[in-house]
């Protein structure tokens, strides 16, 4: 059975869609998957069971990227085509069945909207597929025997970023619960991400730099070794939750009602004010520390 799976260009949305793939793998074990996604998310699927290929869709003027995709897919007969982008492309492909998720924003959790594509309630949790090389790299990168706490101080726009000068006070509060813990700082590739993470790396004692040049599955493997993740609403936050790491998301002007982290152990805190408009600077260290320590108490033994 050949399945075409068109998912998001943004990392966070692509991570949330992995629950659908996990469901299909369990229920159609002989399925062969072609994944369509943006370049940022492509590495997420490299270890997917049954993967035939990943088509990286680069945005082009006049929506020509959809024509490129059609050319890539028209020669194949598909048993199922799932389009999470809400496009019309599957109507122009040879497929026995098509499922199209309506585009645009609407109230409610994004992961629940994704579940509705396959009529699944509750929706399946996101996941990450790791291989032995990912695990070996994580063992080498994080050979620490004591507890590790992951911190994600970056995001794709400044409005989502909790002030970096608060992490020292946050660490002082959280490390009272785990005095032997060591911080691990995660961030994406590129100079801007590095600049956002640098003040936190410099402020926190004995911090481990785990950002900038790792693949998504390597990052996920490192996250599985952490007993807690604290970070802004971002693709990295969703990756941490999907990895099974207890995850605390920090929300300001983005909407937790739509993009709260989804995983086996998750929590989130929201800055005071109208949803979608609250400045994240209004989120206090005390509020974040209380939620972090509560999540630690629930999950760390």
UniProtKB/TrEMBL annotation:
Keyword Glycosyltransferase: yes
InterPro entries, A to Z: Glyco_trans_9, LPS_LOS_Heptosyltrfase
Protein keywords: Glycosyltransferase, Transferase
Any GO BP: lipopolysaccharide core region biosynthetic process
Molecular function in Gene Ontology: ADP-heptose-lipopolysaccharide heptosyltransferase activity
Record-level GO cellular component terms: cytosol
Protein name as catalogued: Glycosyl transferase
Species this chain originates from: Acetobacter indonesiensis
